[in-house]
C-alpha cells in the first residue's frame, strides 16, 4: 500500500542537512517509498470544515549542496485528511500561530491523518512545564511571575538557572547566584516586571559533563545519547549556544529515567520526544521538533527514523 506524509516545518531551503532531524525523517519516508510532501505552517488553511495544505511533493537526496527538488513546479492543494501521516516539525517559538496550527492539525487528524506528535499534546505539554508531571526526576523548580518569590528561591538554593517558558536553543537562559548583582534585573526581564511566568531551577553542577539528549521513539528509549558539552565559560550545553555534541552510550540511570517517562508519552500520542537530562535530573521534555538524531545515527550506524516509520505503518494497518 502506498503511503504519503506531509511534513510541516521551517523553510526547507535553509536547513543544515548534516544535522537536521526533520530531513533525516523525510529521507527515511522516501526510502520506504512514501510520497513526501512539504509545507510551512502558514500553508495550512481551513475551508468548508476541512483542512487543506498548499504543499509540494519533494524528491530528496543526502547531498549537503543539493538536498531537494520539487517534483512539480507549482504547489498543489491537498485535503490534509488524505495524507497517511503528518509530521509537525516546526521549531519554536511556541506562539499563537503555532497553537492555531495545532487546531488545524487536530481537525485533520479527526478527518483521517495520523499526526505526529499529537496536536493536542503539543499544546498541553509545554517543554519546560511538562517536567512537573515527573517530580521524582526533576530538580527543585519554581514557576512564578512573582519577582519576590523567584528571588527568595534563588537565595534559598544559592545557585539557580532562570529561563522563559517559551524559548529554545538556550536563548535567554541565565545562571544566577544569590548574591548576583544582576539577579533583580534578570528576574524583571524574564517576568516583564511580574507579568509573565518564568522558571527557576536548581543549578546542576553535572552540566560540565553535558546536557544529555535522550530520544524516545514510540516509547522505546534509544540506547545512545548526545551529550551537549558547554563551551569554556558557559553553563549552557545547547548546540545553538556554542556547545559541542559528543555521542555516547546511555547509562543505566538515564535509561531508567527514560523508561519511567515513556509510558506517559505514548499515552499522550507523543511518539518522537527528546529528554534533556543533566546528571540525574530531567530539565526539559522536547515534543515540538526534537533534534540530535542525525548525530547518533552517523556515529553508531543506526536508523532511528526507521523505528518511527515502522510504528506509523503499524498504526496505519491497525
Automatic annotation (TrEMBL):
Cellular component terms, GO, for this chain's entry?
Answer: cytoplasm
Q: Where is the ATP-grasp domain?
A: 128-313
Q: Which Gene3D superfamilies match?
A: 3.40.50.20, ATP-grasp fold, A domain, ATP-grasp fold, B domain
Task: Give the reactions, separated by semicolons, that this protein catalyses.
Answer: gamma-L-glutamyl-L-cysteine + glycine + ATP = glutathione + ADP + phosphate + H(+)
**The keyword Cell cycle is annotated on this UniProt entry:** no
Cofactor(s) of this protein: Mg(2+); Mn(2+)
Q: What class of enzyme is it?
A: ligase
So which domain of life are we looking at?
A: Bacteria
Q: In which pathway does it act?
A: Sulfur metabolism; glutathione biosynthesis; glutathione from L-cysteine and L-glutamate: step 2/2
Matching PROSITE patterns = ATP_GRASP
What keywords would UniProt list here? ATP-binding, Glutathione biosynthesis, Ligase, Magnesium, Manganese, Metal-binding, Nucleotide-binding
* EC numbers for this chain: 6.3.2.3
Q: Which HAMAP family match?
A: GSH_S (MF_00162)
Q: What PANTHER family does the record point to?
A: GLUTATHIONE SYNTHETASE, RIBOSOMAL PROTEIN S6 MODIFICATION PROTEIN
Family membership? Belongs to the prokaryotic GSH synthase family.
What is the name attached to this protein's record?
Answer: Glutathione synthetase
Amino acid at each position: 500500500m502506498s503511503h504519503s506524509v506531509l511534513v510541516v516545518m521551517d523553510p526547507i531551503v535553509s536547513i543544515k542537512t548534516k544535522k537536521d532531524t526533520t530531513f533525516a525523517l523525510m529521507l527515511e519516508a522516501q526510502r520506504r517509498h512514501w510520497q513526501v510532501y512539504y509545507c510551512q505552517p502558514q500553508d495550512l488553511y481551513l475551508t468548508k470544515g476541512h483542512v487543506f495544505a498548499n504543499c509540494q511533493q519533494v524528491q530528496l537526496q543526502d547531498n549537503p549542496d543539493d538536498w531537494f527538488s520539487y517534483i512539480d513546479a507549482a504547489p498543489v492543494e491537498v485535503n490534509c485528511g488524505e495524507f497517511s501521516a503528518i509530521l509537525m516539525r516546526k521549531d519554536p517559538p511556541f506562539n499563537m500561530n503555532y497553537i492555531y496550527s495545532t487546531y488545524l492539525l487536530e481537525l485533520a487528524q479527526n478527518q483521517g491523518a495520523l499526526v505526529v506528535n499529537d496536536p493536542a499534546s503539543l499544546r498541553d505539554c509545554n517543554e519546560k512545564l511538562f517536567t512537573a508531571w515527573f517530580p521524582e526526576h526533576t530538580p527543585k523548580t519554581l514557576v512564578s511571575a512573582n519577582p519576590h518569590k523567584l528571588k527568595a528561591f534563588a537565595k534559598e538554593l544559592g545557585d539557580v538557572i532562570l529561563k522563559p517558558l517559551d524559548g529554545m536553543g538556550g536563548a535567554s537562559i541565565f545562571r544566577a547566584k544569590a548574591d548576583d548583582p544582576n539577579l533583580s534585573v534578570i528576574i524583571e526581564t524574564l517576568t516583564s516586571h511580574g507579568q509573565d511566568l518564568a522558571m527557576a531551577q536548581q543549578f546542576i553542577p553535572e552540566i560540565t559533563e553535558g546536557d544529555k539528549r535522550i530520544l524516545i521513539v514510540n516509547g522505546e528509549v534509544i540506547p545512545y545519547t548526545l551529550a551537549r558539552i558547554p563551551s569554556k565559560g558557559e553553563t549552557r550545553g545547547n548546540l545553538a549556544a556554542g556547545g559541542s555534541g559528543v555521542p555516547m552510550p546511555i547509562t543505566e540511570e538515564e535509561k531508567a529515567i527514560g523508561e519511567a517517562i515513556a509510558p506517559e508519552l505514548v499515552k499522550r500520542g507523543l511518539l518522537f520526544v527528546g529528554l534533556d537530562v543533566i546528571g540525574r535530573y530531567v530539565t526539559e521534555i522536547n515534543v515540538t521538533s526534537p533534534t540530535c538524531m542525525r548525530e547518533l545515527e552517523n556515529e553508531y550506524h543506526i536508523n532511528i527514523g526507521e523505528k518511527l516509520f515502522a510504528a506509523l505503518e503499524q498504526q496505519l494497518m491497525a
